[in-house]
Structures are given as C-alpha cells and as structure tokens.
C-alpha cells in the first residue's frame, strides 16, 4: 500500500478521520491532498489602522490592547471583543462563541490580523478574522509572508469547517508530499510546460498569489484530462479486440428495395453518417458509435437503414426506446416507411422483406407470444421495444445490431443485458437528439466514435419561438390561445405541455416523485411558488374556456397503454385538435400536421428539454410556432433561460447553456448532472484544447503500451479514478 493510500486515521486520528469520511468522503491521504480549495480569500495588503476602508479585505500588524468576553443577554453564547492598536489608531476584532481564544489573544501580544472591514455602531471592526501571532523580532518578515498569501477555502461540512480542513491538509503536505508519484510521462510534461505533481499540489493548497494558483490548476487540469482519456482509450482498444460478425450491405436486398421506394433523397449529412456506420458494420469488431443530431434531422431513417443492412446479412436488429409511447411511435413510423417490406410471410407482404416486432411490458399475452416467437425464430429482422426486450425470456436467432434511442435514459445494466443476447458482441449505435458539445462527447462518450447530423431534411419548416409573460401581460396569454384556434382553423393541430399530470395523490413523506412530477422551485425572491400546472386540470379549463369547441385530449405516462396508443393514433390521424400532455411527447413523436406548441410553466423545464419539445412542431410544410408561457419576472434567471431558447434554434449552443446551469456532473457516473464530480479542476465545457490534446496523447500512449506496464504511476492514478462502480460503468459502456 502506497503512502497516499494510508487511511486518514493514521494522520489525523480516529475521530477526525470519521468526520472527514462521513461528511466529505475523504478516507485516504491521497483523497485529502486531492480535495482542492473551491476558492481563495485574499488577505489584502498590509494596512495601517487609520487607512482602513469598509468592505475592503485587509491585513493589519497590531498589538492587542484589551480583551473582553461578553455573555449574550437572555440566551446562550458569548462575544469575545479584542481591541488592537498600531500605536496611532485602534480596531475592534469580534469572535462569536469563541471564548476559548482568550488563551491565545492576550494583551501585549503582537499579531497579524486579516479579514474584511465591517462597521458596527459606527466603529470599524473585523468579524472572526484570520490571525497569526508573532514575536517582535519576526514582525517585518512574517508580515510580508502572511500578508501576501491566499487563504484557501475548502468544500467543507458542518462538522469539518474549512479552517480545520486546512490544518489537516497542512499535516498531509508536511508528511507525505515527498511520497506523491508522477502519473504524467516526462516527455508530455516537458512538451506542455507542466510543473511536477508534488509542486502542483503544494501550490494549489499554499499559493502565494494567483500566478502560482494558475500554474497548479493548469497541471492538475491536465492530470484529470489525461487519466480520463487513458481510461477511455483503453476501453476503445479493448472493444477493437473483441470479435464481431461483419455486416456488409448485400446488393439487391431489403435495403436496396427500401431505398428505391423513398419519396425523397437523403441529405448530404445523412449519406455521410450512413457511410460511417456501414464502414463500422463491415469490420470484425463491434461498432460503438454515437449518433447525435438536431431535432428532426432524420436520425430514425439513418438507424433504419443500418438495421436493414444487418437484416440483409441474415442478422437481426433491436431498437430500444425509453418509453412505450416512443416505442409505439417508432414501430408505427418504421412500418409505415417500409410498407409491405415489413410484412414478410404475410398476405401481400414483400418476398424481400422482413417482419418488425413490437414488444412492450403492457402488451397482451397473445401479441407478446407472437413477438417473442418471431424474434426467437429470426422471422422478425427488426425488434422495437422498451425495457421488456431485456427480460430473460427474450431470445434472438442472430442479434447483430443494438440501437439505443436517447441512451441517457437507460441504466448501464439495461444496455449491457441487451447486448449480451448476441452470441458474439453485437454492433452498437447510440442515438440522442440532445446536441452534445464536442468536449462533452470526448469525455462522457469518449469510448464511442461520434457522428453528427446537423442538417435538416428538405421540406422542414422553421420554428419561431416566443416567451409569453403570463403575469406581466395577461393579454399575451389570451393571444396565445387565439393563435392555437387560428392554427386549428387552418386544419393544423397543437400541443399544450404541462410539467405535471394532475391526477396523483400527494406523495408520501420521503417518497421520490415520478419523472413527470417536477420538484417545486422557489420564486424569484425565494417565495413559495404555486404547484406546477397539470395536464388534467389544464385540459379541462381549456376545453371549457379559450379552446371550447375544439377536440381536446390528454396524454401522460400514467394512462393505460391501450389508451396512450389510441390517443396517439387519433392525434396522428387528425382526429384530435389539441393534445395536452406531459414530456412523454418529448422525443420521437412525429405528427407533421402539428404546427403550434404551448409550453405552460416553461421555466420549470431545462433548456435542452424545451428545445426537444419544440422539435415536435414544424415537422411538415407549414411553419412551426412554440410559445413559452411563464410567470417569472423579466429580470429573473429563469426568464433569461427562456429568452435564450427563444433566441436560437442552435441546439449545440443551447446545450452549452444547459450544461453551464446544471453543472457537468460526474463524467464517469450514470447520472450526468447534480452529483459529485470526479472532475475537480477540468471543465468539459471550457477546456476543449486540453481535452482534445489529452485524447490524442492518451490514444498514442495506449497504442504503444496497452497495459501501462512502463507507466506504473499512471496505472495507479487510473485505479484511483476508476473506483469499482465507475470501472463497471466504463466496462459495460
């Protein structure tokens, strides 16, 4: 066991070690050394007492003149008042409930005191200042050292405040800094001008100035980027070593028959991406490709052509969707696009076709048996479904390709279980309609090759988006409903989206809310907000009020599967004018006749989610309109988000905004937001150059030394980054 793996109890004692472990997940000396300050407080320049200005950060050299402990009246606690002087002026220091400091702070003692100047009872004071007591002969040199340094402020807990953490870190640096290894190859450090890791750790915790802090951060940023990219490069190398059945397109097969029937030509982007996918399918190792594209860019068509290419080789393809609504929509649209090519063996079916099976958890027993039999026998070349496809009883004759739609909605175990159904590892195509910045793709999806569809097919109409400030300008909301009626009057259809379903009971205490039931968020000034608007109540009010006389229906995830499918079929057939729904329609739903969407309480949705939602309109020849209804005031951050969505249709720009607001999350964890991050210094949004260079360097190193035998310190750093859960996540892909 290396020195940095030493349990903290050996360094700081059992009690402190338990607090560090329980509150901050710090268990070893290495954990503590890599627990970096989240910010620094400037002590300020050494200042004479008569030159102090309120709200400035200052450091003063003074002698203690008077110390007084004053108990609070009528309640527990006390206030320690210390008066210091530089011989010309006086300054008050105050410490609350810290009477024990009387042992340190005695009249006649000289010290350096640092803090922010405040004003109390028209008297300048420093509240709970940082200080260092010094001997007279030390005064001048100590003042320079003390005044010039930055005070680190650490991520802390109630039981372990920042100043105590600083003492623990100081102990670790003093005892173990010499034990720190060097994970980065020497030639890489030299080429990029990086300081040694021990020096970086000392400077990140003990910087004298901002220049030293930046030098340390630059080195540590490289460590995080490079070690992560080595992990991903190893994963890519391992994938390339696995065997897979090559799936080369066969002339005269179902793919050629399908292409001949297409009523339009592929975009240049679709042709390019299809070529990339077909090249991967033809190799003897599994394809691992991420297909990302703007809303409405034609990802489903690209995926279908890949699936048909696999069918032509005698294999089968699976499309895994996150919801029953989306699975049914995919099944409906794919069978419509294929026509009799999806009816092999049936009356009127094409001899060169195949079957397309649908499997969801709520299907009837007879339909389920038929789907399972078609998949096991190989009659169904394409299977579409939800998590039901993952069950043990589901078998395939020859699974060659797995397509995962909106992969971020699936757990690792679910994807892995489906891929394990092939005798040899099947090819994998991951699709997402959420545009991903290049740097995020290189980290979160760094073991996948990436294809991007950013060109909309011809015939797609532009979508105009507007914010409707319902409280400030109620007449705008009235006009919104008039616009819905006008679109319906032209023969079009509309969506109204609400954050909540509305038929649920109050969740029990401690019970987690369903995905379609968002948490309530505080108002602009922290006041309690009303509950989010709900589908059930909104639909009823609209049908009786501004949309009276129109055919209004509801759709949400808690409806019976038959009811959901019935509503979507009738909406697609034009038998429903207005569909009031939750975000169940967010992805994949394709009704070209829908031209307007009204999103209620739009501020309660994320930026990328709003972009996905509005992609449901403007899918035909008529222009699309998206109205973002909000009660939030014009100056609020929530309105700024809505203005950003209204201001651009560039999903990549919006995804950056979304990530900046949600935080980057743990790039190796299953959740992509709101969790403790393994990246402490590196920003996947801002450090594109470092990430791209680290990826290239890591790929070269792993190609030359796959097991990192010549780089034992790098191997150790990799093991530290990839704890058991993250290693399993990366292993399963």
Short précis:
The chain is of the alpha/beta class.
Spans of at least 5 consecutive residues with low confidence:
505-527, 664-677, 729-733
Termini Cα gap: 30 Å
Structural class: alpha/beta
Mean pLDDT: 83
CA radius of gyration = 31 Å
Please report the total strand number as a whole number.
Answer: 21
Oligomeric category: single chain
Instruction: Give the helix tally.
Output: 24
Catalytic activity: ATP + H2O = ADP + phosphate + H(+); Couples ATP hydrolysis with the unwinding of duplex DNA by translocating in the 3'-5' direction
Organism: Kitasatospora saccharophila
InterPro entries: ATP-dep_DNA_helicase_RecG (IPR004609), DEAD/DEAH_box_helicase_dom (IPR011545), Helicase_ATP-bd (IPR014001), Helicase_C-like (IPR001650), NA-bd_OB-fold (IPR012340), P-loop_NTPase (IPR027417), RecG/Mfd (IPR047112), RecG_dom3_C (IPR045562)
Pfam family, one: Helicase_C
Structure characteristics:
single chain, 733 residues, alpha/beta, 7-stranded parallel sheet, 6-stranded parallel sheet
Description:
Its EC number is 5.6.2.4. With 733 residues, this protein is of the alpha/beta class. 38% of the residues lie in helices and 18% in strands. The chain is built from 24 helices and 21 strands. Strands 11-12-10-13-14-9-15 form a seven-stranded parallel sheet, with helices on both faces. Strands 16-21-20-17-19-18 form a six-stranded parallel sheet, with helices on both faces. It has a five-stranded mixed beta barrel with strand order 2-3-4-6-5.
